[in-house]
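User: My instructor asked us to take a sequence, write out its structure as tokens, and then describe one feature of it. I'm not sure where to start. Here is the sequence I was given:
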Amino acid sequence: MTLPAPLHPVHEDDHLLVFDKPAGLLCVPGRGEDKQDCLSARAIRQWPDALIVHRLDMGTSGLVVMARGIEMQRALSAAFAERRVHKRYEAVVDGAMPLRDEWSVIDAPLMADWPRRPLQKVDPAGKPSVTRWKAISAWPGKPAAAAATHVLLEPLTGRSHQLRVHLLSIGHPILGDALYGDAALQAGAPRLLLHASELGFVHPVTQQELRFSRPPDFVASRG
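Assistant: Let's start with the prediction itself. The structure tokens for your sequence are:
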């Protein structure tokens, strides 16, 4: 079996690693032999002490931090749980959204849609879930999407599929979403147009303020 090319981290030190995960790569192994290749498996081949801290969906690209050793995993996991990590995403959504300087908020509790697992849904009985969003530009129209909008997203909570379900709930699903979108939405882009573009936190050991930024490839390729 041919091994994937070596990983080139955005940041590497004795305590943690930061990667720019490509779309289509799992963060952790899935079920089945065909789903064993993933970011964590590739990282462990180069850094045997690498441990997962958080995840991005397979279709989502962008910044992911991994710990080196169990103590660092605990420290970083606590930072995520206590909302001490800055996370910003970029997405392209179906439809025209109002372009404003201020941020808007989606406050809608989420829970598992059990008959349709792994899908999630908005439900008053669900867990509190909050997302900030701001539309920054119109997106060139495509045959499957007469209007589309480039948006910035900041999840203030970390629920499964939160950004995808929240945007769907206000009538602006993310282009290319094969899980929540219909055929027309899926045809609007060759991939899920969702990218984790910014990640910031205080280094648990050095106490240095770290801030990483990587633009999505779909911004560079539009037109």
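For the description part of your assignment, you could build on this observation: The chain is about 15% helix and 30% strand. Try explaining in your own words what that tells you about the chain.
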